[in-house]
Amino acid sequence: MIHAKPVVDNEYWILKKDDQKVGNIQAVNDGYQITIENKTGLYKTIPMLRKRENVEFEPAEKTTKPAMDVVHGYPTGCRAHNPIWDVKHKLPLFTKDTKSKSWYAAGWYMIKQHRNWKPVQNPKLIVLERYKYQGPFHSKEEASDHKS
Question: For residues 87, 88, 92 and 97, what is the CA-based torsion angle, rounded to 10 degrees?
Fold first, then answer.
């Protein structure tokens, strides 16, 4: 039996038999092209290819992203993109997507809204520009200890 190990999920596989590379499978416009020992075949679906060529597909390895990211030493609790240090505001900033235009401040802050101070993690930069705040802090407890 030939084993197909995924290189690019649902697009490209390396074929191995007894730990030796014997060919590959590549997704093309019309289906899947298989090359084994200089022989090429084209199949519309993976089940057809699996049945006729006796290929067993290995599951793709799942990579786990860290549940928490850090920007300049401050936790974000989410995946951070475009991390910068804002010199004007003296804040660690990031976006939540590579193409986003919304900036968030990493860490915990105490923000005063309507006479009340409340701890907030990763507020938008515009919130910090509009309201009084203290921070950044490394934890919610540290932020809560600095009430004014």
Answer: -110
- Domain membership of residue 43 as a residue range: 2-57
Least trusted range by pLDDT, from 58-67, 68-77, 108-117, 139-148: 58-67
Beta carbons of 34 and 48 less than 8 angstroms apart: no
**What is the rounded (10 degree) CA torsion for 120, 123, 126, 127?**
-10
Domains: count for the chain: 2
**Does some domain include residue 113?**
yes
Q: Which two tokens stand for residue 81?
A: 């993109």
**Same domain, residue pair 48 and 97:** no
The reported pLDDT for the residue numbered 78 is 87
Return the exposure string of 99-123: e unless at least 16 CB atoms fall within 10 Å of the residue's CB, then b.
Answer: eeeebbbbbbbbbeeeeebebbbbb
